[in-house]
Amino acid sequence: MESLFAIVDIFFVSKVSVNAIATIGLTESVIFLVFAIAIGLSMAATAMVARRTGEHKPEEASEAAWQAIIIAAAFSMLISIAGFFFAKDVLQLMGASDAVVAEGYGYTKWMLGGNITIMMLFLINAIFRGAGDASLAMRTLWFANGINIILDPILIFGLGPIPAFGVEGAAIATTIGRGSAVLYQLYNLFYKSNLIQIKRYHLKPNFPVMLKIIKVSMGGMGQYLIGTASWLFMVRIISLFGSEAIAGYTISMRVIMFSILPSWGLSNAAATLVGQNLGASQPDRAEKSVWTCARYNMFFLLFVSILFFVFAENIVGLFNADGKVAEYAIQSLHYITVGYIFFAYGMTISQAFNGAGDTRTPTIINFFAYWLFQLPLAYFLAVKLEMGPSGAFLSVAITIFFIASAFVIAFRRGRWKTVKI
């Protein structure tokens, strides 16, 4: 459901222009930095709430949840100020042409300026999942996506007295949808949730708990900042080959992100099960749950990879892509989905470490994999060997195998079972 925002936006925006699609791709690469902070805090919140839930300490779980929300709000304010005033500079820094900047800077301004909706949506859903209430997290995303699906075509193309905002309308619709969902989340946290219930006495800052959350989340932020910063450079490499290459890559990644979100669900389940079982002093059951989740994940992604490999052209065609844009999108789908079955294990075990509170190990693995392996390989294949964007796509598939192998080896050592949070 989270990835459906991206799919809906790109579906409608693809009818506007190639520059509009490129704007989303370039902005998304920067927004991933917001996701990195949100997911890092979410990892800490899930780990601490799950551990306290396993220990049967609901008051401490609620306390940790609210302190995480305060931290997220502080981060988002800083990003909002920078994004609102420097939207054009961000696009130019990412290699956008003058035409892309002129058409798309409003989209970037809305997405970065309204990043608190992204931050809170991720974080509060992570709190619900850590407490074992994944269904509430899902209902929140149904609500948000329903609003986005209704508003997207209205704000992009106009309706009656409502003007056509173009690609900027997609950002407005998404921000309103996510913002409405955050209000629904807060309502449940304060008045409805049975597992996590925030009371008035929880609202004051608790700095020892905040510091503990920040300590756990730094590793999580590091993981995704490493990954997303490398994503920025990957997009920068692909931008050397023009807007069509960026547009094609953007379409393929939106499709890929949509397909792997169910896998993220399984991986998040592994994180919650690890946290709750360690809290209940059941480390062997925690380990068994991870291998079970990874195996189910592998079966699912194997099916998806076959589907995408065979029907890549039909899938890309849904986004009105043609010519070089379609060619690059199909190439990206073919290359990247080859590594899907390995991605299943890498993703699940990475989240298992995070659920245990060991965010350091995935951070180290991600640094070596993305910065010392993937980016040099992408540049070498794409530029030095003159393979073009396909060289960059191939480097992603190879890196997926490298990461999965490293995580399996680290997980089998079992040090994550002794982490205290």
Q: How would you describe the overall organization of this protein?
A:
- By secondary structure, the protein is mostly helical.
- It has one domain (2-418).
- It is 84% helix and 0% strand.
- It is built from 15 helices and no strands.
- The chain is globular and about 60 Å long.
- 58% of the residues are buried.
- The model has no long low-confidence stretch (mean pLDDT 86).
Write the layout of secondary structure elements.
Layout: H1 2-13, H2 18-54, H3 58-85, H4 87-93, H5 98-113, H6 115-130, H7 134-157, H8 167-192, H9 207-239, H10 243-279, H11 283-317, H12 323-337, H13 340-355, H14 360-384, H15 389-413
Strand percentage: under 5%
Query: Which class of secondary structure composition applies to the elements?
Result: mainly alpha
Gap from first CA to last CA? 30 Å
What's the total number of strands? 0
Proportion in helices:
over 70%
Global morphology: globular
Order of helices and strands: HHHHHHHHHHHHHHH
Spans of 5+ residues with little confidence (pLDDT < 50)? Answer: none
Question: Which assembly state applies to the chains in this document?
Answer: single chain
Mean pLDDT figure = 86
Number of domains: 1
- What's the tally of helices? 15
Q: Radius of gyration, rounded? A: 21 Å
Largest sheet features = none
Based on the model shown, name its key terms.
421 residues, mainly alpha
